[in-house]
C-alpha cells in the first residue's frame, strides 16, 4: 500500500510546487510571508554602502566603540538567536583565527575573504530556515564580509568585535521561556 501525504499522491510524486513548499493552488497562507522573508534576506545580502571601519582614522588602533557600543547594539539585535546557534558561527571564526595564528603563511587574504563570504552564506541559509531569527544576522555577516580585506582586518578587527558581540549576547539573549537572561 502506498502512503499519501495530503495531496493525493505517494511521497515525492506531487506537483513540485507542493513538494518543495512552492505556491501552487491551495498553497498555505504563509507563502506571501516566505517570499517577503526571501526578499528581506536578498536585500540584507547586498554589500553595505559603507562597511564598518575597524581601525581609527590614520591609525591601526582598533576603534574602542567597535568593541563596546557597536558590539552591544549588535548583541541586542541578535538577542532572539539562541546562544548555541550563534556560537556555531563564532566557532568557525575562531577556527580561522587559529589557522592564521598557527600558520600565517599558509592562509592568504583571499582565503580569509572566502571564509567571510561563506559565513555570510551560512547566515542567509540559517535565517531562511529559521524565520524567527532576526535578519540582522545576515546584515552582520554581509557588513563584515565587505569590510574584511585580509588577515589583519580579520584578526585585529572582526574577530575581537565578534568576541565582544558574543559576550554582550550572553547578557541580552532572550531565553527559550521568553524572559531575558
Any overview of this molecule?
The protein is mainly alpha-helical and 181 residues long. The protein has a domain at 63-176. It contains eight helices and no strands. It has helices at 16-19, 31-45, 64-67, 69-77, 83-102, 109-129, 136-147, 151-172. Helix 2 (31-45) packs antiparallel against helix 6 (109-129), helix 5 packs antiparallel against helix 8 and helix 6 packs antiparallel against helix 7. The chain is globular. Belongs to the CRISPR-associated Csm2 family. Residues 1-12, 20-31 have a biased composition (Gly residues). One of its GO terms (molecular function) is RNA binding. This subunit may be involved in monitoring complementarity of crRNA and target RNA.
Give the key terms:
about 180 residues; mainly alpha; globular
The backbone outline, from C-alpha atoms, is globular
Helix content: 55-70%
Structural class of the helices, strands and pairings? mainly alpha
Largest sheet: none
Strand content: under 5%
Quick structural gist:
The protein is mainly alpha-helical. It has a domain at 63-176.
Helix-strand blueprint:
Layout: H1 16-19, H2 31-45, H3 64-67, H4 69-77, H5 83-102, H6 109-129, H7 136-147, H8 151-172
